[in-house]
Structure formats: C-alpha cells, structure tokens
C-alpha cells in the first residue's frame, strides 16, 4: 500500500507578468503568491544576452526568497531577453525605440533567451536554466510596422513584440520552445519544479 504523496510546497512567482501566470496555468500550476521583484534591470556594460538573462532571473528569485517569511516556500523567477546578435533589445521606452527594434528584426533571425531560477527559501538552494529559441521575422513593410505600433502591443515587451499576439503574422519560423518566446519555457520549468519537490498536479 502506497502512502499519500507529500504536499506541494508553497510556490511564489516572482513576476507580475500575466503571460507567465497563464503559461503556468496551462500545465496545471497556480502560484500561491505573486510578488514582483523590484530590481535594476539595466544591462551592465558589455553584458551579453545570455548572462544578462541568467543574472536577472537569479537576482529576482533571491530578492523575493530573502524577504519571504515562509521557509518552506519555493520562489520561481524568469527573465526573457531578445537579442539581435550581441545586442540586447530591451522593453522599448517609447514608440520610436519600438520602431527601431522592429526595423532591426525585420527579415532576419534573432534569439530569445529566458533565464529561469528557482530558489528554496529554507536553505537557499537554487536551480537555474537558460533556454534559447531562434525566431525569424519576415521582412516587414513600413505599413506593417506602423499598424503594429498603432495596436500598442509593443508596450512592455522585450524586443517590442509579443509572438502570441498580432506579431504572430511576422514569424514564419522558430527553432526551439514556443512558450520560451512567450516568456517561460514550460518543459524546463516543470522539470526544475519537480526536482525541487513540487511535483506534477
């Protein structure tokens, strides 16, 4: 006779992104709390895209874990970085910057990397992964860029686009995880949670 499975530890999502909550729900995971980490997200001088994603996700997870009053909790954090070569295309500050991002991505491949970090509050043990997906944009006309900017989907989006929205029409090919481009690589995240004792539903 088998015993009952151990209860899941509480899960804190260190992200205010509704897209990450929706992705987690897709695989049956609902965080017990959502606490966005307030950290400086400015790339350091010369910092490359993959180390940048890894650093930010780790800093976010540790910031929330250090402040948690529940030692049994797990803290999950992620940061998604869009890069054209070595150049990081962060969340655009205004429409002009969004236009510049889309113009740069037009007709070429770029990389989307998500750093995922999971921290156990009681002992600080950390699991981390970096997942990169290659994305190709078709060549965009000025009219297509104008229409996309007018729809306002670019606001708050790394690289100035959301693949799960209107920008889907710009992407004829991706190589790798689709959910990673949306904001959280689900297979890798689920594996990390299972390794930390947060099993499947």
How would you sum up this structure, described in words?
With 201 residues, this protein is an alpha/beta fold. It has one domain: Maf protein (Alpha-Beta Complex), CATH 3.90.950. The protein is 31% helix and 22% strand. It has 6 helices and 7 strands. The protein has helices at 18-26, 49-67, 95-105, 142-150, 178-182, 186-195; strands at 11-13, 33-34, 74-84, 87-89, 109-120, 126-136, 173-175. The radius of gyration is 18 Å and the shape is elongated.
Here the CATH topology equals Maf protein
The coarse overall form would be elongated
- What percent strand? 15-25%
CATH architecture: Alpha-Beta Complex
Number of helical stretches of at least 4 residues? 6
Q: How much helicity do the residues have?
A: 25-40%
Class by alpha and beta content? alpha/beta
Write the layout of secondary structure elements.
Blueprint: E1 11-13, H1 18-26, E2 33-34, H2 49-67, E3 74-84, E4 87-89, H3 95-105, E5 109-120, E6 126-136, H4 142-150, E7 173-175, H5 178-182, H6 186-195
Parallel strand pairs: 1-2, 1-3
Antiparallel strand pairs: 3-4, 3-5, 5-6, 6-7
Descriptive terms for the model:
elongated; alpha/beta
């Amino acid at each position: 006779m088998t015993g009952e499975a151990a209860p899941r530890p509480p899960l804190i999502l260190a992200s205010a992104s509704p897209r990450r909550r929706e992705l987690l729900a897709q695989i049956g995971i609902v965080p017990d709390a959502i606490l966005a980490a307030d950290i400086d997200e400015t790339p350091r001088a010369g910092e490359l895209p993959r180390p940048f994603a890894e650093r930010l996700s780790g800093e976010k997870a540790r910031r929330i874990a250090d402040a948690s009053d529940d030692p049994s909790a797990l803290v999950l954090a992620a940061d998604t970085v869009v890069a054209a070569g070595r150049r990081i295309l962060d969340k655009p500050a205004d429409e002009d910057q969004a236009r510049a991002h889309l113009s740069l991505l037009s007709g070429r491949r770029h990389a989307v990397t998500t750093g995922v970090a999971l921290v156990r509050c009681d002992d600080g043990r950390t699991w981390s992964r970096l997942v990169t997906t290659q994305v190709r944009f078709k060549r965009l006309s000025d009219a297509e860029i104008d229409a996309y900017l007018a729809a306002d989907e670019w606001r708050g989006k790394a690289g100035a686009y959301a693949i799960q929205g209107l920008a889907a029409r710009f992407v004829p090919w991706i190589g790798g995880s689709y959910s990673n481009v949306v904001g959280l690589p689900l297979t890798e995240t689920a594996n990390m949670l299972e390794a930390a004792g947060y099993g499947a539903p």
